[in-house]
Amino acid sequence: MSKYSPNHPLILTLKNRIWKYTEDLSFFTDEDCWNWIGNMTDRGYGTISFLGKPFRVHRLTYWIYVDFCQSGLIFKSEIIIRHKCDNPSCINPKHLLKGTQLDNVNDRETRNRSSFRNKIHCPFGHEYTKENTYINPNTGDKYCRKCHKKHSREYRMSLL
Question: Which of 86, 95, 104, 133 is most buried, judging by how many CB atoms fall within 10 Å of its CB?
């Protein structure tokens, strides 16, 4: 993707669209969350179409106001834009950080937001012990080794 100037007509139009669907900021400071009130994912992240593709709004605001449109960041899925405030609808650039999925997982663990932290059994009733648990280092997701082994065996048998 070529680099854009923050004053490029395409970027100015995008900025106007973003601010149109941001809650009224007249009572907020730069330190407050700036909440997106437009289209959202089921997890509360704002979404908007840009260049014919859907994007998360916080990713675009980081690209515009922190990177000043000078990187291909918006097309690099391996780069995650994280929220310092833990508010998925927040688009305040001061609340956003660039990182990796592993950074995001570490944030989730550090802030006690992991949905897997308190689960002690897999959906099929096997206990999550040290020996029976695999934690994906990229996503932090917890997997039952017994179930994985069973499903892998069933899949191999279906190929015969």
Answer: 95
Quote the pTM value: 0.69
pLDDT one-digit tens code per residue, 30-68: 889 999 999 999 888 999 999 999 999 999 999 999 988
CA distances to 34, 102, 154 from 121, in Å: 38, 24, 21
| Cβ-proximal residues to 54 (8 Å cutoff; 6+ apart), any chain | 47, 48
Contact present, 95 and 84 (Cβ < 8 Å): yes
Residue 25: pLDDT above 70? yes
Q: How far apart are CA 36 and CA 23, in angstroms?
A: 6
